UniProtKB/TrEMBL annotation:
The keyword Translocase does not apply. PANTHER family: GLYCINE CLEAVAGE SYSTEM H PROTEIN, GLYCINE CLEAVAGE SYSTEM H PROTEIN-RELATED. Keywords: Lipoyl. The glycine cleavage system catalyzes the degradation of glycine. The H protein shuttles the methylamine group of glycine from the P protein to the T protein. The gene is gcvH. This is Glycine cleavage system H protein. The keyword Zinc does not apply.
Amino acid sequence: MSVPEQLRYSEEHEWVSGLEGEGGGIVTVGITQHAADALGEIVYLELTPGEGDTVEAGETCGEVESTKSVSDLYSPVSGEITAINSSVIDEPKVINDDPYGEGWIFKVRVSDEPGDLLDAEAYNKLIEES
């Protein structure tokens, strides 16, 4: 399983891109390939905040439902939601097919320094131990 080097990861299996300053403080968030594989076929995605709402790092911001289970979705960063990927709301299977590309879930204008996000090496270690 590939874990892209340029991303940062939460222990709850969300990824974040854009923390290196590109994009004017706006980052993209999704769930990892590991999480998508563990869930199985994703059939429903609910994101509780909408565009313009704020999220807090580590807090629940939605649910991901698959044919196997329902899991909470957590925000890995704090800030204001600037965009929601409506295509994954309409067709959640996109997350299984392309979790690091077309399967992104939302974008956030980061308001605080990101907390304890993992680099690719540390995330690989985390999933190997689980």
